[in-house]
From TrEMBL:
Belongs to the TatA/E family. It is a single-pass membrane protein. The keyword Protein biosynthesis does not apply. GO terms for molecular function: protein transmembrane transporter activity. Keywords: Cell membrane, Membrane, Protein transport, Translocation, Transmembrane, Transmembrane helix, Transport. It is found in: Cell membrane. Residues 38-107 are annotated as: Disordered. The gene is tatA. Gene3D superfamilies: 1.20.5.3310. It comes from Halorarum halophilum. This is Sec-independent protein translocase protein TatA. InterPro entries: TatA/B/E, TatA/E. The chain crosses the membrane at residues 6-28. One of its GO terms (cellular component) is TAT protein transport complex.
Length: 107
């Protein structure tokens, strides 16, 4: 015969809940309980928002990782085209090969 044991023990019923509420009133006072409940709700809302942001980021990263295959092929095609030189040497004449004379050397 199998019996199931709850993970966190029995869920508090009527009398237990009254005792818990009485202890809360004694510890925090009747005036602070609504503020405490409000701040707890706000904290839970912020936690939920943060968790959703992290899940969205992970989703975007996964979509980005699967979508890079097409982009890699496009960049390879772009990289295979010769690029003009940029810098100080781009304006000067190309250097002659070894064993050849330039026009200024001939004159």
């Amino acid at each position: 015969m199998l019996t199931t044991v709850p993970l966190f023990g029995a869920i508090p019923g009527g009398p237990e809940m009254l005792i818990i509420l009485l202890v809360l009133v004694l510890l925090f006072g009747a005036n602070k309980i609504p503020k405490l409940a409000r701040s707890t709700g706000q904290a839970m809302g912020e936690f939920k928002k943060g968790r959703e942001e992290v899940e969205d980021e992970l989703q975007q990263m996964q979509e980005g990782a699967t979508g890079t295959g097409d982009r890699e092929e496009e960049t390879r095609e772009e990289d295979s085209e010769p690029q003009p030189e940029i810098g100080a040497d781009a304006d000067s004449e190309p250097e002659p090969e070894i064993g050849t004379e330039t026009e200024s050397e001939r004159n």
